[in-house]
Design goal:
This protein is mainly α. It has 18 helices and 12 strands.
Length: 529
């Protein structure tokens, strides 16, 4: 059973989302007579919980995980290619390296990250005034710190120096300049350390609270943050705090595909996922409710619609990703079964095995795989495994977005151990992922991937993580880390210019609305934009 409580928006907190970092400088002193002031609310744990729920509401919204969040990550990776002419101009710009400061997709995602931060700051700031249920209060503050850290982690990895807010913005004088990358990471690490100490394990949540942040989610994100800064020792320490047994423990599920099916949400591999609901009406809110503020509205996602072979098919797998999977035709001793779990090809069955996918049903561009031009589409998160082509032609779905899963933890630990000189441990973690029963790939070393040196283990890791985590919104950030360390044998993007394309441009909306943006010693805009 999915929890609807964490999807509920709060009209009180929502009224704050237009103040401060997103406001123009006109008429800021006006008071909304329909909104309660912050000082008149968040005095009880129940009210603080409503404020916490309102943070999650943004997470599920159109401009975040409902649509644009997965787009902006995927478009910045080499796992995707354009599916055809239906890919809108702002998305095509990001995919092709032509992102401008006025890009509407980028601006929308930036603003929603800061809406998350504003709402999280409101909860964190109000926490000390709540005394009626200190256990719930501390959990709410822990959830808010996790979500604030999640937003800042994405911001700093994709934009570099960004404005750092740790208190609610209430007046025009509260604007902040861009903070140094190290300072943003320092805040992320502090928030996640606090969240890990305050949050419970998954067993503490009942079925009505599935989807809330846990201590393990905080430790996993903390591991990501440390790794991105090159601190592999502290990353390993954080990741090893995620239990692999007991009521709060995690493990790999036997069937790889269970990580992406609607019927197998919240399985034992899932550490943090974003909740969606299939409302059964093929409806999606494209309009004014972009921050998820409906007081009782369930949230759907259009990811199925965007990638589905028989729907818009806006993004398809890149030829480079297809070639990454081991295949007997290219010298491997076994063809990787994950290829069939991740992609649909012409001739595959769908709709519970009752229909066969054709070229004509797959809109748009072709791929080249094993020297053959053919139609290949993404399978992950799509719903035609149980739907007909006509039903799936337009279907916003309720399939949860798995943001962190245990396989990634094992792969991060492999990278940490390799960097720390513990080769045997690194190889063991890699082989644990390959040994999943439905995958059962030969252990490393293999003929194609020897692991006798640190560099060889690194290349095996880069391969393994790409095929295991393909199109899961981690590859783009991995590229940043591995490029900086010189681990990539070839540059993934033909458009890449060093000193510019590591980060996105600062959105024009922020430059226009934040008078302090470039006043702290860091220019308002990133180089080259």
């Amino acid at each position: 059973m999915k929890n609807k409580n964490i999807l509920v928006g709060s009209v009180i907190v929502a009224s704050l989302a237009i103040v401060g970092v997103f406001s123009c400088t006109k008429n800021l002193n006006k008071t909304n007579p329909n909104a309660l002031p912050v000082t008149g609310y968040f005095n009880t744990s129940a009210e603080l919980l409503q404020g916490t729920n309102a943070i999650y509401a943004v997470l599920h919204s159109l401009n975040m995980a409902g649509r644009e969040w997965f787009f902006i990550h995927d478009l910045r990776s080499d796992d995707v290619a354009s599916g055809g002419g239906q890919l809108e101009v702002p998305r095509a710009q990001i995919l092709n390296g032509g992102t401008t400061p006025s890009n509407s997709v980028m601006n929308a995602v930036w603003e929603n990250y800061y809406t998350i931060i504003l709402r999280a700051n409101t909860v964190i700031n109000a926490g000390p005034t709540v005394t009626d249920n200190t256990s719930l209060r501390d959990r709410c503050v822990g959830e808010a710190k996790f979500l604030r850290a999640w937003a800042y982690y994405d911001l700093v990895t994709m934009w570099g120096p960004v404005p750092l807010y740790t208190k609610p913005v209430l007046t025009p004088t509260d604007f902040q300049p861009r903070a140094a990358v190290a300072d943003v990471y320092k805040q992320v690490i502090q928030d996640l350390s606090d969240a890990a100490a305050a949050l419970p394990g998954k067993s503490a949540y009942g079925t009505t609270d599935l989807g809330r942040a846990t201590a393990s989610a905080a430790y996993a994100l903390l591991g990501r943050a440390y790794m991105q800064q090159g601190d592999y020792a502290d990353a390993k320490t954080a990741l090893l705090k995620i239990p692999s047994s007991g009521p709060d423990g995690y493990s790999l599920v036997s069937n790889y595909n269970d990580n992406f099916l609607e019927e197998t949400e919240f399985n034992n591999e899932s550490i943090f996922e974003i909740v969606f609901f299939d409302k059964g009406d093929q409806n999606f809110n494209w309009g004014g409710n972009s921050t998820g503020d409906g007081p009782t509205a369930d949230q759907t996602t259009v990811r199925n619609q965007e990638y589905c072979p028989v729907a818009w098919r806006n993004l398809i797998p890149s030829d480079g990703l297809l070639a990454e999977f081991e295949n007997t035709a290219t010298g491997a001793s076994k063809t990787d079964p994950r290829f069939g779990f991740v992609f649909y090809r012409t001739g595959d069955t769908f709709d519970n095995g009752t229909a066969t996918l054709t070229d004509a049903e797959q809109n748009g561009n072709t791929s080249t795989y094993l020297g053959v031009t053919q139609k290949i589409s993404y399978r992950k998160y799509t719903l035609i495994y149980k739907q007909s082509a006509s039903q799936a032609s337009f279907y916003p779905g309720g399939n949860n977005m798995r943001v962190i899963r245990y396989a990634e933890v094992l792969l991060m630990l492999a990278e940490c151990e390799n960097e720390l000189g513990n080769s045997a441990n690194a190889i063991a973690y890699l082989n644990q992922v390959r040994a999943r029963p439905s995958v059962n790939m030969p252990p490393y070393p293999t003929a194609q991937f020897p692991v006798g040196t640190k560099d060889q283990i690194t290349q095996a890791l880069i391969h393994e993580k790409r095929v295991e985590m393909s199109d899961e919104e981690v590859r783009n950030i991995d590229i940043l880390r591995w490029r900086a360390k010189g681990y990539l044998k070839t540059e993934p993007f033909s458009y890449f210019k060093a000193g510019r394309d590591e980060v996105l441009p600062i959105p024009q909306s922020e430059i226009d609305n934040n008078p302090k943006l470039g006043s702290g010693g860091i220019p308002a805009q990133n180089p080259g934009y």
